[in-house]
Design a protein that fits this description.
The protein is α+β, with helices and mostly antiparallel strands. The chain contains five helices and four strands. The protein starts with a helix and ends in a 9-residue tail after the last strand.
Length: about 130
Amino acid sequence: MLLILTLGGACAHTQKKSDPESLRPVVENFHKRVRWKDYRVAAQYVVPERRKDFERTLRERKDERDLDVTDYEIEAVQFVEEGTRAIVTSRFEWTRLPSVTQQKETVTSEFIYRDGVWMLEKQQGGPFDGDLP
């Protein structure tokens, strides 16, 4: 009986479960990085298989020069798929030259828990709409 409990406990420790508490800093940091045009660091929050495309699109659009995220607010977080995926709803405000009109839009971001960390996988709406389909 003791052997079964010991082995069962060992298996439980080797499983990688999502950590909902670790999501908030990741979401906040991604938002802050794009707010302050620190796209090199912001891209590190994107899943590796989409990171290069995200960075390329930012360069092609000249977002470092032309995009100004003026405000953001995280409105809701919903955990799905047994806590391994999170849908984050945020409100973004931004301008992108040559337009000087401030845009306001609700953004839906999907974060996935992979290899012990949360990463941005998809995003709809806002200044990066279509960059992470």
